[in-house]
Amino acid sequence: THEKSHKTPRFECEECGKGFSQLRNYKYHVSVHRGTKEFAAKCPECGKMFNDKGYLSSHLKIHRNKKEYSCPHCPKSFNQRVAFNMHVRIHTGVKPHKCNECGKRFSRKMLLKQHLRTHSGEKPYQCSVCGKSFADRSNMTLHHRLHSGIKPFACPICPKAFTKKHHLKTHLNYHTGYKPYKCPHPNCGQSFTQSSNMRTHAKKCQFKPPDSEFV
């Protein structure tokens, strides 16, 4: 079928063994090995290279800020159909990508790919400082900040800064007084700014039932 012809690799690179289902992608890949990039199309705005004029046209919308695809469920809009389709799945709950090992489903192919590494044990991303390996690039980037000292998430109220966004979010609870983590035990009602503080409290709470999961 037409759909199958796009998914099945028909062209294999003799240099590295990578497979391609479309000839134009294969030809561009080979030209990269040769150092020519003869099939490339270059973005006049940022210089980024693409192996197809159609991909370049889609990329140019980012610079022109043309957001043609509006989400029917929320105010967000997108300039690329692929990004729009992935976003809509957040609302619809559609998860078309299934893990053959455990049956877990994902809304994006990239998330499935990352998940598969939990089964295979593959950790392709290595810290250049200490050599520690990670299954996905984002965790490696977060780890690398421990060495570099970079803390990109700064508190707008005090001088503190953090390596992770959710650490900043938790810290802001101290300034605002927001306590989103409530004790799960009936008749208690205490709330906390951090989930760790809530769990510590729940273990010792006077209202804790005998069958509580907090031990």
TrEMBL record:
<protein>
    <recommendedName>
        <fullName>C2H2-type domain-containing protein</fullName>
    </recommendedName>
</protein>
<keyword id="KW-0804">Transcription</keyword>
<keyword id="KW-0677">Repeat</keyword>
<feature type="domain" description="C2H2-type">
    <location>
        <begin position="97"/>
        <end position="124"/>
    </location>
</feature>
<feature type="domain" description="C2H2-type">
    <location>
        <begin position="153"/>
        <end position="180"/>
    </location>
</feature>
<comment type="similarity">
    <text>Belongs to the krueppel C2H2-type zinc-finger protein family.</text>
</comment>
<feature type="domain" description="C2H2-type">
    <location>
        <begin position="125"/>
        <end position="152"/>
    </location>
</feature>
<dbReference type="GO" id="GO:0005634">
    <property type="term" value="C:nucleus"/>
</dbReference>
<dbReference type="Pfam" id="PF00096">
    <property type="entry name" value="zf-C2H2"/>
</dbReference>
<keyword id="KW-0539">Nucleus</keyword>
<dbReference type="GO" id="GO:0000978">
    <property type="term" value="F:RNA polymerase II cis-regulatory region sequence-specific DNA binding"/>
</dbReference>
<keyword id="KW-0479">Metal-binding</keyword>
<dbReference type="InterPro" id="IPR036236">
    <property type="entry name" value="Znf_C2H2_sf"/>
</dbReference>
<dbReference type="GO" id="GO:0000981">
    <property type="term" value="F:DNA-binding transcription factor activity, RNA polymerase II-specific"/>
</dbReference>
<feature type="domain" description="C2H2-type">
    <location>
        <begin position="181"/>
        <end position="210"/>
    </location>
</feature>
<feature type="domain" description="C2H2-type">
    <location>
        <begin position="69"/>
        <end position="96"/>
    </location>
</feature>
<keyword id="KW-0862">Zinc</keyword>
<dbReference type="GO" id="GO:0008270">
    <property type="term" value="F:zinc ion binding"/>
</dbReference>
<keyword id="KW-0805">Transcription regulation</keyword>
<feature type="domain" description="C2H2-type">
    <location>
        <begin position="11"/>
        <end position="38"/>
    </location>
</feature>
<keyword id="KW-0863">Zinc-finger</keyword>
<dbReference type="InterPro" id="IPR013087">
    <property type="entry name" value="Znf_C2H2_type"/>
</dbReference>
<feature type="domain" description="C2H2-type">
    <location>
        <begin position="41"/>
        <end position="68"/>
    </location>
</feature>
<keyword id="KW-0238">DNA-binding</keyword>
